[in-house]
Amino acid sequence: MDAKISVIIPCFNYSRYLMRSINSIRDQRSTDWELIVVDDGSTDSSRRLAQDFADDHPELAVTLLFKRNGGLGRARNAGISVARGEYIVCLDADDYFSDTALEHMANKLDDDDSVDAVRPTLRAFGIADYTWSHSPYNFQDLKSRNVAPYSSMFRRRAWVQVGGYNEMMPSYEDWDFWIALGKLGGKMSSAAEALHYYRTSRDGMLAQHIHRDLELRATIVNNHPEVYDRYCRELASLVMAGEHIDDRLTETRGGIFGESLRAYSLKRHQDLS
Which of 211, 234, 204 is nearest to 222 (CA)? Predict the structure, then answer.
C-alpha cells in the first residue's frame, strides 16, 4: 500500500547534516510516509550515509536516487517524479522537522480539499535565530515577497498542474513555484506550530545567491509576466539587460523589487561617495 506522504530530501555534499535530516523523518509520529533521498552528485560521504541508512532500515519505505549535479529544482523534480504519495513535502539536507511536522501538515490538507499547500511555522537556527509564522494567505502578498517556506506540504496534483519546479532557477525556485501555483488559483493555509527547523549559515544555498537577489526577482517577473504590472516588467527588463537603473525607479511603490531596490540604491550611493 502506497504511503500518503512523500518526503523528498535532495542532498549535495551535506554529509555532515544529512543524518539529522533523515532521522527527523524516521522519528515522525505519523508513519504514513515514504522517504526519497536524491543525491545530487555529491563528492563527500552523503551517498554512503544514505545507502547505509536504507540498508539498516529495510522496514522503512526509503528510495535512493543518485544523479549528476543539476541544482535544487531539478533534484526535487527527480524525487517527486518517482513519489507515490498524495502529499509532497521537501526538506533540505541541512534542515530537520519536528516529530509532528508531517502529521500536522497532512491533517490540514485532509481537512480542506480546497487547500493546495500548508505552510509550517519555521524556526531558524545557526548564525541567525528567528521564527517565521504566517498571516492569512494572499496572492498579492506572494507576488511581492515569498510567504511560504520551501518545506510547505502540497498536493501532488499541484506539482502536476504547475509542471514542477522551474529547473532554470538557481535559487528562489520555491517562490517561483508558489507563484506558478497561485496564478492557477492555488490556496495555502498554515500550521501554527514550529515544525521546520531551518539552518542559517554563511555557506548555505540562500547565502550563496543573495547577492543575485535583484536578478532573481527580475527572473520571477519574466517567468510570470501576466501577474505583474508594466512597472515591474519594465524594471525586470532593465535588470536582466544589465542596464543602469535610474535612481527615480528605486523610489518604488513596493512590490517585488521594493526592498531589493532600496538596498541597491543605498549601495550605489555608497560606491559613488
Answer: 234
pLDDT in tens, 62-112: 999 999 999 999 999 999 999 999 999 999 999 999 999 999 999 999 999
d(CA 169, CA 206): 12
Crossing angle of helices 213-223 and 258-272, in 10° steps, is: 140
Q: Grid coordinates in use for 193?
A: 506550530
pTM of the entire predicted model: 0.91
Long-range contacts of 47-50 (CB under 8 A, 24+ apart): 49/15, 49/18, 49/19, 50/11, 50/18, 50/22
Closest CA to 71 of 143, 164, 153, 158: 164
Domains of the chain: 5-202 (3.90.550.10), 209-272 (no CATH)
